[in-house]
Amino acid sequence: xxxxxxxxxxxxxxxxxxxxxxxxxxxxxxxxxxxxxxxxxxxxxxxxxxxxxxxxxxxxxxxxxxxxxxxxxxxxxxxxxxxxxxxxxxxxxxxxxxxxxxxx
Length: 104
Hints:
The protein is an alpha+beta fold. It has a single domain (5-103), classed as Roll (Ubiquitin-like (UB roll)), CATH 3.10.20. 30% of the residues lie in helices and 26% in strands. It has a five-stranded mixed beta sheet, with helices on one face. β3 and β4 form a beta hairpin. This is UPF0125 protein M5G27_21885. Belongs to the UPF0125 (RnfH) family. InterPro entries: Mopterin_synth/thiamin_S_b, RnfH, RnfH_sf. It comes from Pseudomonas shahriarae. Pfam families: Ub-RnfH.
């Protein structure tokens, strides 16, 4: 019996460049397996494909080892945040309040 193949995309945006790769994988492939089959780990050796956070169309996948992909899915590999967005906003607000107090 011939195994059915589906088309997906795998994307990763590094600091200096981004890659979008079309990949053909067998139906029933998990998200994590699709990452390894994409070969993107060869292009970005700093990525730990076994542990990196991933999503499909902007929604984080909690269990990429279990979640099966579907035809047309776009798997996104997420980089860790360099700074906590809440902390950055808090610091910016404190700086603005300090500047406002000096100008009064």
